Amino acid sequence: MGDKTFSEFQTELLFNLGNPSDIDSFVDDWVNAAYRSLTSRNKFYGLKMPKDFKFPELETSSNTVTQTGIPYVIKPTNCITVTTVFDETNKRKLDFEHFKDYIEKTDRSTTASRDKPIKWIPYENKVFVYPTPDGAYTLTTYYRKRPVEMDSDNPTTAIGSEWDEPILMLATIFGLMKMKQYDEAAVWKQEFLMTIQDMLGIYSREEKDLDETLHLDPAYLEGFKYRK
User: Fold this and answer.
1) DSSP strand E in the chain: where?
2) Residue 67: which residues within 8 A CB-CB, separation 6 or more?
3) Distance (Å, whole) CA 92 – CA 87
4) Closest residue by Cα to residue 80 from 141, 146, 157
5) Under 8 Å CB-to-CB from 204, ≥6 apart: which residues?
6) CB within 10 Å: which end of the chain, N or C, has fewer?
7) What is the mean pLDDT of the chain?
8) What distance in Å separates the CA atoms of residue 145 and residue 9, rounded to the nearest whole number?
9) Coil, helix or strand for 67?
10) What is the Cα–Cα distance from 80 to 41, expressed in whole angstroms?
11) Per residue in 127-167, pLDDT tens?
């Protein structure tokens, strides 16, 4: 879990913004918006996060039992994105399929085509499976969960303390943008991107393929150079 407390985030964010008056009511939202963004988005100002990057603290799973003739199970309420579905009953990992391919299967709703699921298809708040189940099968859905927002009862983040500073930097960017201080926001964006890139470089020592996936276009950074 993070080291900074919610109140420390608030105090440091106000300091970064120059302690302006009449913004105290917005600070909480900016901090939590940054926290949500960091843990759910896959792209920041031209920097694309590696496809396989994960926050281990937010990876979890949930079991659901299928019903005969019902082609889907409901995603967990705190689910951001599903990564894998495993059929515990038949001991096999289901294959991923795009929804556009699934809806082209004209036999998907017929009784005669019901069988043990072999594919999973994400759509809105559901995970569809194909074929439509012919019985009760226990599915384990592996997913990234939405972290609980910080407040007095949840004073720190659910992820590692190494992410405290990027969250604060991102909250600062949000605040500066709202206050229309675009030049200052540009400086913070550049620092934020460099910090994230450096951190992911450390992670790539364990995931050797990440450095090939992670790339920030130098031309993009050129546009963020501070101009006096």
Assistant:
1) 43-44, 47-48, 59-65, 72-74, 79-87, 92-93, 95-96, 119-123, 126-130, 138-145
2) 133, 136
3) 5
4) 146
5) 50, 210, 211, 214
6) C
7) 89
8) 22
9) coil
10) 10
11) 999 999 999 999 999 999 999 999 999 999 999 999 999 99
